Please model this.
Amino acid sequence: MKMTGSEAIIKTLEDLGVETVFGLPGGAILSTYDAITPETKFNHVLVRHEQGAGHAASGFAISGKKETPFKNVGVVMVTSGPAATNVVTAIADAQMDSVPLVVITGQVAADLIGTDAFQEADIVGITLPITKHSFLVSDANDIPRILEEAFTIASTGRPGVVLVDVTKTAQTGEVDYNFPNDFRLPGYQPKQVPGFECVNKAMKLIMEAKRPAIYAGGGTVRSKAHKEVLEFAQLLNAPVVTTLQARGIIPDSNNLSLGMVGMHGTITSAAALQNCDLMIVLGARFADRVTGKLDEFAANAKVIQIDIDPAEIGKNREVEAPLYGDIKKTLQGINRQLEVNSEISNDIQVEKTKDWWGYLKSLQEKYPLYLDEELAEESGKQGRGALSPQMVIKKIGEISKKVDPDCYYVAGVGQHQMWASQFLEFEKPGHWVQSAGLGTMGYAVPAGMGVKAANPNNDVWVIDGDGCFQMTNQELATCRLSGLPIKVMIINNGTLGMPRQWQTLFFGQHYSQTDLHEGPDGWDGQKIYGNGEEKNGGSLRVPDFVKLAEAYDAIAIRVTKPEEVMPALERAAAEKERAVVIDFEVAKDAKVFPMVPAGASNNAIMYSEDCQPLLENTFENYMINKGDK
Model:
């Protein structure tokens, strides 16, 4: 079948099963956009900024539940030059979090490459360090094959981003279209299961362990290994701690779940890793936000590490039993061995780990999640944010689950992200979407839009900060015009919350350039510019989020008092046609605790500003005190 390269791009996307593409047209990709017709089989979502296209595609991919893998790949299509560079942040973000994306960019004609032509940028060179693979296409005949290769590479092994830069020459050229293509990737063969000897070594360590702990990362979610992880934990009677990405890999309601680990994880999860004798690492990379000071991280533990990416095994931490393979398939084999092993029965494991669980449960009771309700009350008396951010997020969790138990949560980056991870309850994997590795502010609104596109029948609750929201809120226009009604909850403290927290704790309360409502001469927002009129106890609203949301034809609500929280959330939960934006004015100095100071040992985790519980509450001390009794 004869067609142009542009038509081949559209036809190949259709034949690959793509259902949604996020993009924005421009000169070097216009011929491909011209090939999109009312008969095109996929939906195109016209974004307002190319970075938004990338984050939306990421949200789509993370939350996708299609049985055909290619249908869960996020797809972006933009033009050359500034459009391509605008997508770079989203590419880096997705690659860090192992999200399968295919990014199609237009490029100037092949004979103009290297001439500094209008809107020319070497996007392949720019993105080479932050993609799984990149293609430059200058021949129309290569388009179907390369796109099929791109989707295969993006969605298999460790998922990631593949860039396909297509010159105008290729788009306007002629191709004799065939699909599927008989392609081979001899240098790309991800391993599915580890070798027999490695598994035997891991089994030996498991049988010897008295204080096992499972450290589950985002790879468990990408592998869809939630059933296998839960079964594995139950067979070992082992606690499960998760990274930020892996929340929900086992239900929070399960007594084996200790919640998130890391800089703002629970006290109990930190204790579990610091005091275990065997750490079983599933699809996690020993990121600095989890390990703290690396040479003091789980210092006395032996390590089993399972990962689909061999580059991650032993990269930051020595590993006694490295298992290179897909987590789901590897755990299926290990679980079968454990089931028939007479030395690993549930009764034996319960007895063997009795003291271990006694220690962990004592910490759970002693150090519940940290709230700032008294601070919020005092803040309200001063005419500022009177809401506890933790309380607001708890209420969001209560009403969202009541209305739609299968709803999705999306977060921006900062304090609100950590509070959401702490106070929302996650029962299923893939229902918690946020930027983990790169920590990209502005992620939430477009990512939420992508989640809604993938799951139109479920509610999508976007929890954002006032700093993050101002970076990408233009995508509310996309939400309205594309029929993607998300619910945006702005945790508005009038400042860049996480930097302010660090300034409070580590920089002598020098609040340099973090107050989002500070006037031109250091003025603190006590009066409105111009007429000197006092307003709302000194709260300057620039922008006014309610007016801004109304300009995008969203339902807009401002909440300033505790008694207003539930009625506003009930209104949001009931709305199904339009986006909802609620501006929650919360206490400015509310902090995220627990907290491990940057570069410190996890043993120095702070439950509050003056409490570091793990320095004394070790397993060894627990056993000594237990003996005294």
In short: The first strand starts at residue 2 and ends at 4.
